[in-house]
Amino acid sequence: MSCIVKITSNIQRHPELTSKMTADQSMEHELAQRNNLSEEMEKCTETLSILDQGVKTLMSDNVRIASKFQRNEYSIQSPPSDHQQLKLSIDEKESFLAKIAPDRQIIQENLTKTKEDILTIEYTSYDGTLIWRITNVSDKMADAQSERQTSIYSPPFYSSSTGYKMRARLYLHGDGNARRTHMSLFFVLMKGKYDAVLKFPFNYKVTFVLYDQSGQNRHVIDSFRPDTKSNSFQRPQSDMNIASGIPKFFPLRMIQQDDNNYVKDDTMFIKILVDFGDVPKMMLPFVISLNPGLPLHDQQHLIKQELEKRTQAAAS
């Protein structure tokens, strides 16, 4: 159980990028934390494997002893003391198996939770943006059409290490009046650790981008500003507020075409961008066209350069 405690402690100490760290330092620190968590998970997996092997051995012994007991009971006339000894041995092993069963269950549950936490750390963003990679689109679309699962959620992301916690919610076959005609895409404000010191209602512009994967940069871009009177943008009292956004984000007839440029290899990419810096609307296409593989500080530098260039051109 000590490996589980150690992993949980590591997760709780995960750095969540402080403001004094540069983007590169943050990335290195996060990578080191992820490696440490992976090592601890491997140790925990080994522990669980050893425990499982021990249980299998005990169960095998139990079966063997029970079989021997049965043979002795029905095939030969053994002294009563031998029968009693075999019965006690079986009872002891059964009692031991019953005692360790809860521990095995706890270890398995904690191991599953640790794997989920590692995945969360791996995909978490702390700069107010998220590129959501959606795989098996055809299966998810079929689930939405049949209403087995009408919507899916993105991983959570944050405005900063001490900021707002957010996610997106996608209805692949539409929601409400947009059902069967459009994909519906919504923004969800989540309950975060630092909400007590953040400003509410949440009033920052949200932009959604469906990436064109053909290289032609014909991305689908749409934005909305929060209705500060809506409960969706007040301080969350439960895990998630009611989703709010753009019901008619993209026509289904276009996304369902076999040769469309927005789903390739059964995968689509959606970017969620929360504008905390009041980026001018005219700059959005430029911001979206930047290579998302560039470090964040490089992207910010390019945006600043482009904005200065356009400002100078407008003034001349």
UniProtKB/TrEMBL annotation:
GO biological process, one term: regulation of canonical NF-kappaB signal transduction
Domain MATH residues, every copy: 127-274
Gene3D superfamilies: Apoptosis, Tumor Necrosis Factor Receptor Associated Protein 2, Chain A (2.60.210.10)
Keyword Lyase appears in the UniProt entry: no
A GO molecular-function descriptor: zinc ion binding
UniProt cross-references to PROSITE patterns, sorted A to Z: MATH
Tagged with keyword Zinc-finger: no
Transmembrane domains' residue ranges: none
Keyword annotations of the record: Apoptosis, Coiled coil, Isopeptide bond, Ubl conjugation
Signal sequence residues: none
InterPro entries reported for this sequence: MATH/TRAF_dom, TNF_rcpt-assoc_TRAF_met, TRAF-like, TRAF1-6_MATH_dom
UniProt-listed PANTHER family: TNF RECEPTOR ASSOCIATED FACTOR (PTHR10131), TNF RECEPTOR-ASSOCIATED FACTOR 4 (PTHR10131:SF94)
Protein name, per record: MATH domain-containing protein
Lineage: Eukaryota, Metazoa, Spiralia, Gnathifera, Rotifera
